[in-house]
Amino acid sequence: MHKEAKKALDFVLKGQLDSGAFPQRYDAKGNDASYKPIQIDGTGLIIYSFTKYVLAVNNEKFLDMNWHKIQKAVNYIKQNFHEDKNLIYTPNSIHEFPPMERGLEIWANSVCCAAIKELCEVTKKYKKNNREWAELTHQIQSGIEKYLWNSRVNYFIKVIRIKESSSVDIDIDASQLALCEFGIISDNDKRMKSTIKKMEKDLWNKQLGGLCRYHKYEGRNNGGWGPWPHFTLMLCRHFIRLKNKKKADKCLDWVLKIAYKGMLPEHISTVSEFEEYVTDFTEAGLLRKDRLILIGNARKHPMFKKGIAYITIPLAWPHAEFIITWNLYKKVF
Question: What is the DSSP letter of 333?
Answer without folding.
Answer: -
